[in-house]
Specification:
By secondary structure, the chain is α+β, with helices and mostly antiparallel strands. It has helices at about 10-25, 40-45, 65-75, 90-95, 105-115, 115-125, 140-150, 175-190, 255-270, 300-305, 310-320, 400-410, 420-430, 430-435, 445, 450-455, and strands spanning about 5, 25-35, 45-50, 75-80, 100, 155-160, 170, 195-200, 205-215, 220-235, 235-240, 275-280, 285-295, 335-345, 345, 350-355, 355, 360, 370-375, 380, 390-395, 415. The protein has an eight-stranded antiparallel β-sheet with strand order 13-12-9-10-11-14-21-19, with helices on both faces. Strands 3-2-1-4-5 form a five-stranded parallel β-sheet.
Length: about 450
């Protein structure tokens, strides 16, 4: 195991990784921007290094500063968390070139799966179902027009180098193709420095179901079953659960097929570390490869609670050279878990970010309740980064018990001084529609939970 690990991230995921390091007896080194001097991760790590000014481009995205901090601190490895540089192959390669272990897949794997068109080709080769679309990125709008006519409408235009819901637009007919192409390409260029797009048949009202995988450096791969991530707003997940309620609806082997396909893809690309294979699933229970995230996911805690496997500790152990210490047969599903993201934003003002000082707060506890957060009373949420300030994760022996516990946890969650998404989440989780599992990725945008949830929450 490593002696010292630098954490190239901030917020609740940095705190989560610090805790995993402590569990394994590893010294943790936090990095922070000038805006994060008082952040929790900078205060509780064994060591902390300032790496630049507030803008992420000058701090958490500054590869040279992070590498220099790791070398100066005597760290042996870098954990990138999620977001920022976590799926940047150049950063992983730079770490290796400087004698540092990147806690994640090899740079070649990140590049392979980070190119969404190439990832789709790998999925096809591994026998994973894919939606009809282009074989790779189109050369320009003229080619997009030709391919759209071949594929048929409605279709999605997706950033080839993208992820996290950025650089995606839907064209429902030929008249909307040009605007969708221009908007998706511009967003992709702004977020990834690469405006290339590929086209894919749009799956109407799909479920978003993903499978967690772990692989070691010796060719061993296991899956840790599935997660339901269909409660989304503008392609950003808000509520996640494990296992998928949709996979439970029929005893048709859907869960097994999705999990086996994810493991097959991970084996094909020689995957090392924690990764997630994401699918879109239609109403007829056909599933299609969406993308592979080559990092730890925000929603990883629900998988931890239903399998008993600490995914961040697993990342550290695998990166340090340990072979997987369990087999697929050892992984069992136990109960149900639900996660709710807490964002400092105002749903009443179109989810506008709400940075500011937390004057007072109370976080829930009790049986089956876990809170992952970097927030504390007196902390000032900076305006420079993502609005997520924490996550509530609740588990139970049944889905019904997990729902009851996360509603209890939300009712006990109090923030004074900043507006959060807690009441909005309660509205969703209190609805009969959520209890029934009757939702898809477009349910929030359609307003399916609005009136029903308001009534149920009263």
């Amino acid at each position: 195991m490593f002696d010292k690990v630098l954490i190239a991230n901030r917020g609740e995921i940095a705190v989560r990784i610090i805790r995993a390091c402590r569990d394994l007896g590893v010294v943790s080194v936090a990095v922070y921007s000038e805006a994060d001097k008082e952040a929790l991760h900078a205060q509780i790590a064994d060591e902390a290094v300032c790496i630049g000014r507030a803008p992420a481009s000058e701090s958490y995205l500054n590869m040279q500063n992070i590498i220099a901090a790791a070398i100066a601190a005597g760290a042996q490895a870098i954990h990138p968390g999620f977001g920022f540089l976590s799926e940047n192959a150049d950063f992983a390669r730079l770490a290796q070139e400087n004698g540092l272990v990147f806690i994640g897949p090899r740079p070649e794997t990140i590049s392979l799966m980070g190119d969404k068109a190439e990832a789709k080709r790998q999925a096809i080769a591994a026998g994973v179902p894919v939606a009809p679309g282009t074989d790779g990125a189109v050369a320009g709008f003229a080619e997009a027009q030709r391919e759209a006519a071949r594929i048929g409408y409605p279709l999605m235009l997706k950033a080839s180098a993208g992820g996290g819901g950025k650089g995606i637009r839907v064209a429902r007919d030929e008249s909307g193709l040009k605007a969708a192409y221009d908007n998706a390409s511009s967003e992709a260029e702004a977020n990834f420095g690469d405006g290339r797009l590929y086209l894919e048949r749009f799956v109407e009202n799909p479920r978003h179901i993903e499978v967690q995988v772990l692989g070691d450096a010796y060719g061993n791969v296991v899956h840790l079953f599935d997660r339901e991530c269909s409660i989304q707003r503008r392609h950003q997940k808000l509520i996640e659960e494990a296992p998928s309620v949709f996979a439970d609806f029929a005893d048709d082997g859907l869960r097994g097929r999705m999990c086996e396909a994810a493991a097959a893809l991970a084996r094909r690309v020689g995957y090392r570390g924690a990764g997630t294979v994401e699918y879109l699933v239609d109403a007829s229970r056909n599933f299609y490869f969406c993308e592979m995230n080559t990092r730890i996911q925000v929603e990883h805690p629900v998988t931890e609670l239903v399998t008993g496997i600490d995914l961040v500790c697993a990342q550290l152990r695998i990166a340090a050279g340990d072979p997987l210490w369990f087999t697929q047969e050892d992984v069992k599903l136990r109960g149900h878990a639900i996660e709710c993201r807490l964002n400092a934003e105002d749903p009443a003002r179109n989810f506008a970010p709400c940075p500011g000082k937390i004057a007072a707060m109370h976080l829930p506890g009790g049986a089956g309740v876990r809170v992952d957060t970097a927030a504390y009373q007196g902390y000032s949420i900076p305006p420079f980064y993502d609005s997520m300030i924490g996550k509530l994760i609740c588990s139970g022996t049944t889905r019904e018990q997990a729902i009851a516990r996360i509603r209890r946890a939300l009712a006990e969650t109090l923030f004074d001084g900043v507006t959060t998404s807690a009441d909005y989440a309660m509205q969703i989780l209190s609805s009969d529609r959520f209890r029934r599992g009757d939702f898809h990725t477009g349910s929030l945008e359609n307003g399916d939970f609005d009136e029903e949830g308001k009534t149920a929450a009263c």
